[in-house]
Amino acid sequence: MPPKDSSRRIGLARALSKLGYCSRSQASDLIRAGRVSLNGRTCRDPETRVRSARDRIEVDGQELAAHAKVYLMLNKPRGVVTTASDEKGRETVYSCLDQGFPWIAPVGRLDKASEGLLLLTNDSAWAARVLAPETHLDKTSHVPIGAVADAPLLDSIARGVRADDGSFLRAKHAQVLRGGEKNTWLEIVLDEGKNRHIRRMLAALGIDVLRLLRVAVGPLALGSLPKGSWRRLTDKDKQALDRALRQQSAVGAGHQRQAAQADRRRRSARRRR
Hints:
Layout: E1 10-11, H1 12-18, H2 24-32, E2 36-38, E3 41-42, E4 49-50, E5 57-59, E6 62-63, E7 71-76, E8 105-106, E9 115-121, H3 124-131, E10 139-145, H4 151-159, E11 161-162, E12 168-169, E13 173-179, E14 184-190, H5 197-204, E15 213-217, E16 220-221, E17 230-232, H6 235-272
Helix pairs in contact: 1-2
């Protein structure tokens, strides 16, 4: 059975991405280069509306069919970048994967100096749900810092701080894992994910991050997966993540309703004055 949205008309570049052939930006380049045909005719407009379940799409004369969905977890090593190709010639996360996969993309990013659990998939709709701000899916990291953590520091991390660019950065939870005379290992849980969130948050508090290791996304833990290795998500893994996404989305929707109700009460109170 085709996906529920397979009969809906979408842009040609998006259709190539959903079929698991390449990213949407790569698809746009292929289309503009005249390498994509739609129902036997060359198409150069990436936004041409198509029905991927009905229309015949070819790249370089080869008809495309939907690839099976692929869901991977990778233990990203420090020093590799989370991108398909790098203009500076740096090693990317794809160097850790075997050949023969359909096009797959990282679900979010870990910066070059960070390591740990990174999801990759060709299911762009699922990836969007994992990354959607309203899901508030927990991301757990272990972070050694160049300072001795005390209660006021943990409180500041949870309350939130202003970064240099004015953005507000906070953690859902922070606790000490172990400490020494000069350094401390923290566990930090985020339910939102801004660019270099943890590093910028701690920098605003004058704290040096010595290492950053993501150990879990929602209920999915990195476990004993060796550095630089990958594995497919099991059915149990995928079901647990999907269940967490549904639960967190419901919680987020409830919070939004409460906020809307509170806003309506405030407006009503101002009118009565």
